[in-house]
Amino acid sequence: MKVAYCIRKDYQTRGGGDVVQMLMTKKYLEKIKPDIQINIVSEPSDLTNDYDLCHIFNFSTFSETSLFFEKAQLHKIKIASSPIYWDYNITAYQYFSRLNFFKISENILNIEIFILKLLQKFYPISKLTSPKFSRLCKNFLENSDVVLPNSIEEYDLLLKFVKEKDRNTYNYQIVFNATEIGGVKLSSTFSQKYNLPENFLLQVGRIEPIKNQLSVLKALLYDNTIPIVFLGKVFVPEYYEELKKMAEKRGNVFFVQEVPYEDVFDFYANAHSHILPSLRESPGLVSLEAYSQNCNIICSEYPFSPYNTYFSKIAISINPLDLQSIRTAVMNSFAHTKKTNNMEILKTFSWENTAKTTLEAYNSIL
C-alpha cells in the first residue's frame, strides 16, 4: 500500500496539532504495518497516480487542501481526510479577549457572535467562518471516501457548519488524537538546564489570544505563590507584550520559547499541573501529553473542546471565559498531589491505537 500524506507547505517550520497528528500517525502505522509506504507530500504537483490512497490533513488550510482534492480526483486516488475542524466562530472570542476586561460576560459575547455572523455574510471577520469556507468543507466531505474526525463533537460541529443534519450522509470513522506511552526519556538535569521553581503550573502552546494565557494571569493575579510557566513560541507579538506586562505585575511567571520536542516531556514531568484554557481545541494534544507524565490537567469544557470524549474522566473542566472558574480549578488542582495516570485511558488515546483505527479506515475504502 502506497499512501501520500498531504499537508500544507510550511509544515516543517510552522508546527501545530495537524503536523504532530500526521507525523505520529505515520510513525506508528509504519510500526504496525512495515510493508506500508507513506510519503509526505506538501506540493499538490507531487501527488501522482502511483499512490493507492492519499490522506489529506486539515480543512482550514483550504487553498492547499482544495488543490490536493482536485489532484486526487484527477488521478482517481482514494481519499481519506482528517478535517481537524472546530467552530471558528469562536474567533470572536479571540478578538474580544484583547479588550482586557477582567471578566467577560458570556451572554454579551454570544450577542456579539450573533452580530458577527450576520456581518460575515457581507464582510467575514475570518475566512474560516465565511459561507465560502462552508461550501468548501461540504465539498471536501462529499469527495472524501472516508472522513476521519478526532471526536464525535468535532464531526457534529462540522456537519452543523455545512448545514447537514445526518451523521451518516458521509462515510466517517472517529480516529482519536493521542500521546506516546512509554519510550519517553526524561532528563536528570532539567532543573539546572532551565532554572525553574518546583511544582509549577504549566501551559504549553503558542503565545496567541486563542490560547488564552492572559486569562490565566488575570485569574491568578493575587495568587502569586504558584509559579506559572508558559512554554511556547510567540505567535502574536502584541499579545505577548500585553502578557509580559501582566506577568511583571503578578511576578513568579516564566516564559520559555521553543525547546526540542523531547524536552517538553521534562516540563510535564516537573510541573504540578497543566492548564489549557483555550477558546478552541480539537482536542489539545498537550493535555494528553501532560497526563501521560502524571501531570494534573485542567481543560476547557465543551463547546471550547471535545472535553466529554477525551477529558471527562481525567481532567478538571473550566469555562475559559470565566476567571473565577479558572482560579477555582487551579486551586483545587494544587490542593491535591499529582495523580498517577490511568493506563487504560492512556491506551485508548495511544498513537498505536490511532494507527490501528486509521489502517482499518484505509482498508475499508481500498
Give the topology, please.
Layout: E1 2-6, H1 17-32, E2 37-41, E3 53-57, H2 62-74, E4 78-82, H3 91-96, H4 106-120, H5 131-142, E5 146-147, H6 152-161, H7 190-194, E6 200-204, H8 213-219, E7 228-231, H9 237-250, E8 253-256, H10 261-270, E9 271-276, H11 285-292, E10 296-300, H12 307-310, E11 315-318, H13 323-334, H14 343-348, H15 351-365
Parallel strand pairs: 1-2, 1-3, 3-4, 4-5, 6-7, 6-9, 7-8, 9-10, 10-11
Helix pairs in contact: 1-15, 8-9, 8-13
Task: Report on this structure.
The chain has 366 residues and is of the alpha/beta class. A six-stranded parallel sheet has the order 8-7-6-9-10-11, with helices on both faces. Strands 2-1-3-4-5 form a five-stranded parallel sheet, sandwiched between helices. The longest helix is centred in the first third of the chain and has 16 residues, at 17-32. It contains 15 helices and eleven strands. The relative contact order is 0.13.
Task: Describe, in short, the structure shown.
This protein has 366 residues and is α/β, with parallel strands linked by helices. The chain has helices at 17-32, 62-74, 91-96, 106-120, 131-142, 152-161, 190-194, 213-219, 237-250, 261-270, 285-292, 307-310, 323-334, 343-348, 351-365, and strands spanning 2-6, 37-41, 53-57, 78-82, 146-147, 200-204, 228-231, 253-256, 271-276, 296-300, 315-318.
